Amino acid sequence: MKKMSSYANDTHSFAKPNEAVAKHLLLDIGVDFDKEIITGTATYTIESTNANNIFFDTKNLKILQTFVDKKEVKFTLGANDAVLGQSLSIPIESDSKIVSISYETTDKTEALQFLNPQQTADKKHPFLLTQGQAILTRTWIPIQDSPQVRLTYQAKVKVPKELMAIMSAENPKAKNDTGNYVFDMKQPISPYLIALAVGDLVYKEISPRTGVYAEKSMIDKVHYEFADMEKMVKAAENLYGKYAWDQFDVVVLPPSFPFGGMENPRLTFATPTVIAGDRSLTSLIAHELAHSWSGNLVTNATWNDFWLNEGFTVYFEMRIMEALYGKEYANMLASIGRQDLAEEIKNFHDQPEATHLKLDLEGKNPDDGMNSIAYDKGYLFLRTLEETVGRDKMDTFLKEYFNKHSFSTMTTEKFLKYLDKELLAKNKVTFNVNDWVYKAGIPDNAAKIVSDKFQKVEEAIVNWEKGTLSEKELSKKDWNIQQKIHFIRNIPTEISLEKFIALDNACQFSTATNSYIAMVWFEQAINHDYHGNNVDAHIENFLMTVGRRWYVSTLYKAFKRNNQVETAKRIYEKARPNYHSVTANTIDDMLGVSY
Ligand code: BES
Ligand code: ZN
Q1: 104 catalytic, yes or no?
Q2: Range of 214's domain?
Q3: Residues 356, 359, 365, 366, Cα dihedral to 10°
Q4: What is the number of domains present in the chain?
C-alpha cells in the first residue's frame, strides 16, 4: 500500500483522492463538427490505498463503458446535482493500475463552444474552444475535477483535416494534412487547466519560446500587439524565478470567448477584444503570464482559496507592467482596480461575507466567488503587505514561496502559516492578516494608490463640470487609454444631457474602436439615457458579437439598473446563441430568464 499525500476537502468535487487518485491521463478523442460532440476515451494511471472504488466527476456526459486494467467493469453514476453534475464510481482492487472510460459529450456540455464560420475572423471554417475553469472540465472529460488533483497528460486528437488542434501542452506549430494531432503535458497540472482549441489557425513566433496563434487574417495584428511577450517573461523571471513551462504562447480566439484571458499552461487563451492596434490592453498578457507562477505552479487547493490564484496574479501583473512600462503606468492600472473594488464592496452591502478573501462556497456555484474581491482586494492586501515590510523582503519572500511550493496546491490556512513564519515573524513585523482575509470590507491600513496622471484627469472633470474646460479642449488632451477609461468612468452622474452630447460629438466615444473605451462609454450612455450618434445600434452590435463576460455583464447590468430591462431582454434573446455557456448562465441569472 502506497502512502498518499493528503488532499483537503473540496466540496465541489465528488472525487475522493485520499482513497484513489489519478496521476496521468491519456486522452484519445475525436471532434465531430457535424454532431458538435467529442467522443473517445480517457485512460488514467491511478494510485490507491485499499479503496473499493475510484470516483470521478462528470456532468452531462454520456458514459459508455469503463475498464480496469483492460477488463470491462460495471460503473455507477450518482444522483445529478445541477451545479456539480454526477459522480462516476468505478470498482477497483488494491493493485488496479489503469482505469479507462469511453464516453461522448452531449449538447449540454458547458465547457465546449462550437462556432460556425460566421462567428470566426476568417469566416471560412468552424471553430471549437473549451473553457475549464472553474468546474467545467468534467463536462468534456470524465475526471477528478478538483484543483488539488494534479496530473500529467497526453492526448491524441482527431479533427477535420482543414483544421488544427492546439492544447495546454506541447503544441504543433503548423497544420498537417491528416487532422491527427498528439500532445504532451509533462508537468502535473490541475484539471481546470486542460484546454483545447480547434480551428484554421496559424502560428507566428515572437521569440524562440514565445509566439502567437490566430486565424490568418488576424495573425499580423496579433503579432504586433503582443510583441513585448518575451520581455514580459524575462521581467517575470527576474522577479519570481524561472518560467517553469518552457513555452509561452497565446492563442487569440473568436470574440465569443467568455473571458479576457485564460491561463492555460503553455498556451494562454485570449479574447480578440484586446487587439486594440496600439498595445494599450496588453496588461492582460502580463496577467495570464503571471498565472504561470500564481495559479499554475502554486494552485488554489479549493475554490474557496481562489484569491490565492487571482490576488497574487494581479499583484504580479502590476509588477511586470511596472518593470516594462514604469511605476506610473502600473499605478494607473492599480487605481482602476481600486475603484472596481470600492464598487464591488458597495454591491455586496447586504452580503458582507462575500467580501472576505477566504470564501465559503459550499453548496454554491464556485462562479459566485469569481468577482473582483479575489482580484482587487487580494491585490490590495499584497500591496499593503509590500509597503509594510519593504519591497526587497517581499520579493525574497515571494520568490522563495513559489520555489518551495512549485507544482503543489495551497490552502489559505497553509499560506497564512507560511506568511507568518517566513515574512512576518522573521522580520518582527505585525500585520492585521486576519482582518484582511476573514473580515468584510477594506481594513484601515490599506495602501493608498495614487496616480498623478489620474489626478490630472480628475481635475479636468471638475473643470469640465464647472464649464471652464470645453469638450473640444478635453478631446485634445494627450491622454492614454487608461486615462480615458478613468475619465469616462468618472463622468459625474448629474452632468447635463447637453454636455454629454457635446462630449460625444467632440470625442466620438460612441464609435470608439478600443473595446475597453467602447464598453465603459456604452455603460455611461445607458446610465445617462443617451441615444445620440447611433449609440444604441453600436451597443447592440457589441452585445451581438462580443461574448466576454465582464464586458457584456457590465452592459446588461447597466440596462437593468436604469430600468431598461426590456431593452436588455430584447437584445439578449438575439445575442444569447452567440455566447458561451458561462456568459449565458451569468446573464440568464441577472435578467431572470431561462431558456
Ligand atoms: N483565470 C481567469 C479567468 C477565470 C476566472 C475563468 C474564473 C473562470 C473562472 C483569468 O486569469 C482572468 O482573470 N481573466 C481576466 C483578465 C484579467 C486581466 C483580470 C478576464 O477574463 O477578464
Ligand atoms: Zn486571472
Answers
A1: no
A2: 203-292
A3: 100
A4: 4
